[in-house]
Amino acid sequence: MKRSKLLLQILVVALWCVVAVGQTNYTITLDGTATNWNTTDAAWLAGGTGDATAWSNATAESLNSATITLTADTTLTPTEAIVTNKITVSGPKLTIAATDGGSLSFLGTTNSPATIDSSAVANNVITTVGALITGTIGSDLVINAHGDTTSSGGAVAGHFEFTNTNNDFVGNVRVTAGLLLANSAALGAADNKIVLDGGGLRFTSTTTLSRDIQVTEKGGLIRVSNNRTATVSSISDAGTGGGCFAQNRRWSAHPQQQFRLVHRDLAKRERHTASYEFRHLFRRIFCDGGHGLLRSG
Question: How far is the C-alpha of 271 from the C-alpha of 277, rounded, in Å?
């Protein structure tokens, strides 16, 4: 009897753990009218259906997310402390603006990392988050961005960008697709790293990026605009302890160029293949056996 009661208690606890961590996806359609983001205005649809309701902040028990669809360029302004697990954007230009008392925090876990997904936005659009981003994320902040990463995409101006230099969030920034504007001062705490995991960085002005950059086996890229110079403090292979790529590396683009970064393991496999070559607007840069050198063909 006691054993059956104990098993029942364990089952109840297990079921509570399963249902306690959920997620509600709140959706909103923006038509060009400036809109405030808060927990009082009935501007959202919970689960995408039903009557309009107010936004509910994400918690450890409910990792709520936001899906924002635009039919015209729109500014969305958090007017209080907003917490979300994920923001998904589609349509024209979205600007998430700063205001006194308003902020964004991301709550992520290993199984549900904090994410901003603008991959459905056209490659010629600039999506901007200017609101203050604060707090400890609990995971990497994944940027699954838009932006043309092809060798011929240099004339396409779109990318995703953070602009608030007061951002103090704690968590690495992982770029899995598209282009993130290289703005070191807006990428949170000083120890936050940039992880290129299939996506890239865009330099639209002569810039020194003071953050460590790590490159996974999915690779990454650096796109430098016309007659600008990009300087980075260090680049290394993610998970290897660093040292593969050179420190204080500088690239200059005359005219615009794109530099492809490849993880050491992939570089070893491709070292003697046809893909190891120099092309006029598309360069693959390989690690030279872990000796801290970059090669460009």
Answer: 9
Burial pattern 91-109, b for ≥16 Cβ within 10 A else e, equals bbbbbbbbeeebbbbbbbe
CA dihedral 47, 48, 51, 54 (to 10 degrees): 70
The pTM of this model reads 0.81
- Give Cα 110 to chain centroid, integer Å: 16
The pairing of beta strand 257-261 with beta strand 220-224: antiparallel
The single-letter code of the amino acid at 290 is: G
Q: What is the pLDDT along the chain (297 residues), one digit of tens a residue?
A: 555 554 445 444 443 344 345 799 999 999 999 999 999 999 999 999 999 999 999 999 999 999 999 999 999 999 999 999 999 999 999 999 999 999 999 999 999 999 999 999 999 999 999 999 999 999 999 999 999 988 776 678 899 999 999 999 999 999 999 999 999 999 999 999 999 999 999 988 888 888 999 888 888 888 887 777 888 877 877 764 443 444 445 555 544 556 666 555 544 444 333 222 222 222 334 333 333 323 332
Under DSSP, the state recorded for 192 is: P
Cis peptide before 255 (omega within 30 of 0): yes
Measured CA to CA in angstroms, residue 79 lies from 93, 127, 166 at distances of: 20, 19, 17
